[in-house]
Amino acid sequence: xxxxxxxxxxxxxxxxxxxxxxxxxxxxxxxxxxxxxxxxxxxxxxxxxxxxxxxxxxxxxxxxxxxxxxxxxxxxxxxxxxxxxxxxxxxxxxxxxxxxxxxxxxxxxxxxxxxxxxxxxxxxxxxxxxxxxxxxxxxxxxxxxxxxxxxxxxxxxxxxxxxxxxxxxxxxxxxxxxxxxxxxxxxxxxxxxxxxxxxxxxxxxxxxxxxxxxxxxxxxxxxxxxxxxxxxxxxxxxxxxxxxxxxxxxxxxxxxxxxxxxxxxxxxxxxxxxxxxxxxxxxxxxxxxxxxxxxxxxxxxxxxxxxxxxxxxxxxxxxxxxxxxxxxxxxxxxxxxxxxxxxxxxxxxxxxxxxxxxxxxxxxxxxxxxxxxxxxxxxxxxxxxxxxxxxxxxxxxxxxxxxxxxxxxxxxxxxxxxxxxxxxxxxxxxxxxxxxxxxxxxxxxxxxxxxxxxxxxxxxxxxxxxxxxxxxxxxxxxx
Amino acid sequence: xxxxxxxxxxxxxxxxxxxxxxxxxxxxxxxxxxxxxxxxxxxxxxxxxxxxxxxxxxxxxxxxxxxxxxxxxxxxxxxxxxxxxxxxxxxxxxxxxxxxxxxxxxxxxxxxxxxxxxx
Lengths: 479, 119
What we know:
The complex is a heterodimer. Helix content of chain A is about 35%, strand content about 10%. By secondary structure, chain A is α/β, with parallel strands linked by helices.
């Protein structure tokens, strides 16, 4: 082993050793904390000497002491200010629709009323106008799981399925009929986003929109319920949920509701509503959960009133499986209540079954979910059957029910027997390319969008499943 | 603050938990009471109507809970003791009743096995 300093250095100090010597640097490279107990044990630090307070009382007695209380008192640890009730949830559920760090996309155009029904616009990206954003936000169309917070302005891609759905809505409204659709498809393919597009289309074309953002809130026994007197078999109202829905509905549809007038008087309401009052005023009478159900019934009767001009209505619901099973509510005789016996849900299912229809035409659209959905064998079977029946003749075999399975539900089958099933698949390559160009223009995809990249991400995303493509392209940490 | 059967509950307390705080009223009975008055399982005391609170008090006052239920248990133990049964004697001594060994671990028996049984 060589000496760290040679003899000559001792005689004449060299400039390299003088100002900075190596051993001085060594302690600086060590992290000021240790992550493992073992490491900490290797290099024990001397305990910091705390200056003793001369005024502090010295223990007057050492040795064993009698413990007066049974248990040791826990130390009070100051953990800072705890969040207020509901604060954590609000943070978790917050929706931010813009990101100032993302680049504005110069070629992006704002969506106009007819844009999404035009097949020439397939594989184009449109931004949502500010007023529309407010309406969609008011009816809770945006979800916290969707990645709106990455882009400058919320924008949507027009796909083949979009044009198909909007075309059906337009056609039904033109013929004063009610289109009855169920959107289904694999996970992350954009079923909820298709609902959002349908709502955007409806708002832009001055339809009235009612939206149930999450069907599970209705049936998981998390909101108040009460039997409706005089119904046989007994139906149940959900006043608190309906109150929230009416308030959102009023905020989102303010412009249309102020131009739509009541057809009959409503003396049963707390404020007397006469004929030819705007529906907006009717909605404003709902202030307390107590009277909310009466207001909702009056509102529903007004929306369904015949022989008066009514705009087309869109009724959408996300998470269809939740309203196709027994709910978690119990009747006074302790039996589970079927979801279709909840009065609000029944309005939706009656429309979906085609037993009732909107007087001015419109659409009822339900979306299934793949991430939070109970298994409903009847629904899966009927949707598969409907899909096979709608396929070109002989293209698919109609699935048959399992004769040895008892869990089928007749009520569910009767509701879904005649709906149109729209399968939302992965995007095509031109659609994927257009979307990726939008990502690149926003500065989020830092690559040249060429055939190779599009094909790579399209394949990584399970043949164009948009959510998976987003994961593969935007959510990865590549710097 | 909501009063049920003379007990004061905080407005944030779950109705289900409040009901289950009464002696001899468990999950089964509380679920049935909730269903009977159409209260959803996640309801809090603060959200109850005054009418429902009165109805709950009336319902609970007809049930064998709290001291009535304790009395039944105590009577059973006393009967065993009075007839001189082994179980009665073991209860009176605060020892395990059903043949457990007593070398160690008889805290539960010490706590519960009494003539005037509380819990």
